[in-house]
From TrEMBL:
GO biological process: DNA replication initiation; fat cell differentiation
Organism, scientific name: Canis lupus dingo (dingo)
Molecular function in Gene Ontology: chromatin binding
Residue ranges the record marks as coiled coil: 449-485
Matches recorded under InterPro entries: ARM-type_fold (IPR016024), CCAAT-binding_factor (IPR005612), Noc3_N (IPR011501), Nucleolar_cplx-assoc_3 (IPR016903)
Keyword Repeat tagged: no
Biased composition (Basic and acidic residues): 52-78
GO CC annotation, single: nuclear speck
Protein name, UniProt field: Nucleolar complex protein 3 homolog
Length: 798
């Protein structure tokens, strides 16, 4: 059936154009006038209605009369009272009286009930019933207040539904007044001035509050530890104490809560990362135990997240130095709170590298490694070093290295050198990088069914099947990380480290980061790709020749160069003579003062340059270095002298023909030139190690023992041989063992027991005649002559 079409058609655009503008304006005006008139009528009716209600309220309520219950006695009394109140009719004329009666019979304003809102000249409607007319009569208000009823559930009976009601209990006004009076009395009591506490009372009160808070923290923490899955909601209660508002104990309580939560998370956190559930997992039905575990994990992750956000906010408040509206914690206390927060973040960084939000902690900690506050910077650097040392897989280390590299580049290499020195703690070894992954982790091969059938009997096949099943279960239970993944992570980490190092070498050669870069290159040089060796050696030599480096930095350059050449660089045809010359030339810069600590680097360089490259080192070079090292041992501290003499001992064993330095009669061509900086051409074979005689009288017993050992030709057996505790240690280890960092000798040095000598004093040094001459000149009166320096000046000019 088709829809009915609207007969009223929409006027076309052409028709609308024909309509005059005046006609449209008139239509709009008429429409607006109608709306205004309708609104006025509505307002007028509402005003009348409000007036009628107001009149009805102001009128004195009269109970509704019942014609059946009217008693004649009361009616007669009322009529008598009305007659008495009425005016005397004797004073009125008959005409006036007649007029008043006629008026009384008519409906007028005087006889109209004001409580009715019905108009005066209302027309009588047709078919109006008596009941409707009765309903329109206004009810008078009752004198007694109506009781408020409560409607209950109805009861259904044979007769029908019976409604049930009950009176609402009336609150006694007297009781309300009493309660109000009690509240007013309490307010009056509170308004009394509080007695000011003395300092001692204030401290006692604070100690009492603090003890209560400590007990509360301990109770919550012990409840969580006893059953974490059940009491996980108490973590929220404990975390809410981070917002402690009591100014007396706010700072202390917040610090205690930070440390308590940190220890709790370290204890109750599982050894795996909790991932969010998918929609399919949420919709599936699970057991109660699994549901309980899920709720525990969700609660733990959410509380851990909020806790980290609170710690971050504390650090930000300290950085921004902005006082909060609550004014509970002062600006001075912000630093203490920030230090505790940073310490907790460092602990979580090291303890929970596998758990959620570890990357967020790294992003918080790395900028603080470059903080102005030395204590916070050292704390963060130590935490990162500890993480590098204990990270076996390399996942956490890679995350930290990425953030540090980006931070250094973003700051245009203007950061603390300690940030790059943390790279030295990375656990990356040569074997882990060089070994083939197939040789390390060969997959276990099981026999096929055909092979078993050919070689094994039925019973043997049965046992073999059970054995293979057990081996598979053991492999799954082991769950060891794949070596391939570890090598991949280490390779990526090293790439980022070397990119950072090479950027600084290229762009910021005068940066304070250069020593840390050179030290890092010296450690990881054997892992650098061979393609970069030529360019890197050129850069290192340029840095040394520039003269802008300190002595320690130049030593790191030499160490890096020889580490490169001693590893994969053996295949390269590079002559490092310039590095030998530089080290030989700068050895005398070492002394017993500030540069004494650089002796350790020199010992490491000598080991790589001479001992490990013995086939590329000539005898003349070895003799020159042994002679210069013996001279150096005379003016350094005892631990440095021991390290240098131990190096000489190894060199004498490595190059046996160097024992000619112990023979006075041996002669060669030329004369020894100690001031020449070229070790190949200084003719060291024409000298002797006379320094060993002076070192035999050294105050340190170990130095004396080494000097005597070298003078005897460094024998491995006999009375002149060293003890195993000295001979088996390297030079660097001996340098560390006998260090004087604690300002004590190791072993203690014996006090010198020299005999008392008689010294001549005073005049006993002089002759008698000389004494008399001196006394005579001293007794003469001193005559002052004018000083004339010009004559001496003239003679000097001539």
């Amino acid at each position: 059936m088709k829809a009915r079409r609207n007969k009223k058609q929409i006027p076309s655009f052409r028709k609308l154009l024909k309509t005059s503008k005046v006609k449209l304006e008139n239509k709009l005006k008429n429409k607006q006038f109608k709306q205004q008139s309708t609104l006025k009528k509505y307002r007028k009716e509402q005003r009348k209605l409000r007036q009628a209600v107001k009149d009805a309220v102001s009128k004195k309520p009269i109970p509704l009369e019942d014609p059946k219950e009217k008693r004649p006695g009361k009616r007669i009394e009322r009529e008598e009272e009305e007659e008495e109140e009425a005016l005397p009719l004797d004073m009125m004329d008959e005409d006036d009286l007649q007029l008043m009666r006629e008026l009384g019979q008519r409906a007028s304003f005087l006889t109209r009930d004001l409580s009715s809102s019905e108009p005066v000249h209302a027309k009588k409607r047709k078919y109006e019933r008596v009941i409707d007319k009765y309903e329109k009569i206004p009810r008078t208000l009752q004198t007694a207040p109506e009781k408020e009823m409560i409607h209950l559930l109805p009861i259904k009976d044979k007769s029908g539904i019976i409604p049930q009601t009950r009176e609402k209990p009336v609150i006694d006004n007297n009781q309300d007044e009493e309660d109000q009076e009690e509240v007013e009395l309490e307010e009056e009591i509170v308004e009394d001035p509080i007695r000011e506490l003395t300092l001692e009372e204030h401290l006692i009160e604070r100690r009492k509050k603090l003890q209560e808070k400590k007990m509360h923290i301990a109770t919550l923490a012990s409840a969580i530890l006893s059953d974490p899955e059940t009491n996980i909601k108490k973590l929220k209660e404990l975390r809410s104490m981070l917002m402690e508002q009591d100014p007396d104990v706010a700072v202390t309580v917040r610090k205690l809560v930070i440390v308590s939560l940190m220890e709790l998370f370290k204890d109750i956190t599982p050894s795996y990362k909790i991932r969010p559930l998918t929609e399919a997992e949420k919709s599936t039905k699970i057991r109660k135990e699994t549901q309980k575990l899920r709720e525990f994990e969700e609660g733990l992750v959410s509380q851990y997240k909020f806790y980290l956000e609170n710690l971050e906010q504390m650090v930000k408040d300290w950085k921004q130095r902005k006082l909060k509206k609550s004014n509970v914690v002062s600006l001075k206390a912000y630093k203490g709170l920030a230090e505790v927060a940073v310490k907790s973040l460092c602990e979580l960084l090291v303890s929970l590298p596998h758990f959620n939000f570890h990357n967020n902690i790294i992003v918080l900690i790395v900028p603080l490694m470059n903080d102005v506050s030395k204590s916070i910077s050292e704390m963060c650097c130590e935490a990162v070093k500890k993480l590098f040392k204990q990270d076996k897989l390399g996942q956490a280390s890679l995350g930290v290295i990425k953030v540090i590299s980006g931070f250094v580049k973003g700051r245009n290499y203007e950061v603390r050198p300690e940030m790059l020195k943390t790279f030295l703690c990375l656990r990356i070894k040569e074997l882990e990088v060089k070994k083939d992954t197939e040789d390390i982790n060969k997959p276990k091969k099981f026999m096929t069914f055909k092979e078993k059938r050919k070689t094994l009997s039925r019973m043997q096949r049965k046992w073999k099947k059970a054995e293979e099943k057990l081996e598979r279960e053991l492999l799954e239970a082991e769950a060891s990380e794949s070596t391939e993944r570890k090598l991949k992570l280490h390779t990526e980490t090293l790439n980022i480290v070397f990119v950072t190092y090479f950027r600084i070498l290229k762009k910021a050669q005068r940066s304070p980061l250069l020593p840390a870069v050179l030290e890092g290159l010296a450690k990881f040089a054997h892992l650098i790709n061979v393609e970069f060796f030529d360019d890197l050696l050129v850069v290192l030599h340029t840095l040394i020749e520039s003269g802008d480096l300190s002595y320690r930095e130049s030593l790191h350059c030499v160490q890096t160069a020889f580490h490169i050449l001693s590893g994969q660089g053996d295949v390269l045809n590079i002559d490092p003579m310039k590095f030998y010359t530089h080290l030989y030339k700068t050895l005398f810069k070492l002394h017993a003062g500030a540069t004494n600590e650089d002796v350790e680097i020199v010992l490491q360089c000598l080991d790589v340059m001479l001992t490990k490259r013995r086939k590329q080192v000539s005898q003349q070079r070895a003799l020159a270095f042994i002679k210069r090292l013996c001279t150096l041992a005379l003016h350094v501290l005892p631990n440095s002298s021991i390290g240098i003499l131990a190096t000489n001992r190894i060199l004498m064993h490595t190059f046996p023909k160097t024992d000619l330095l112990l023979d006075n009669e041996s002669q060669g061509s030329g004369v020894f030139l100690p001031e020449l900086d070229e070790p190949e051409y200084c003719n060291a074979q024409n000298t002797a190690l006379w320094e060993l005689h002076a070192l035999q009288r050294h105050y340190h017993p170990i130095v004396r023992r080494f000097a005597a050992h070298l003078m005897a030709g460094a024998p491995s057996e006999g009375s002149a041989a060293l003890k195993p505790e000295l001979s088996r240690r390297s030079a660097a280890e001996l340098f560390e063992t006998y260090s004087m960092a604690a300002m004590t000798f190791n072993p203690p040095v014996e006090s010198s027991s020299s005999k008392r000598k008689v010294f001549l004093q005073g005049d006993s040094f002089l002759n008698e005649d000389l004494n008399q001459l001196i006394k005579r000149h001293c007794s003469e009166a001193a005559t002052h002559f004018p000083l004339d320096f010009t004559k001496y000046l003239k003679t000097s000019l001539r």
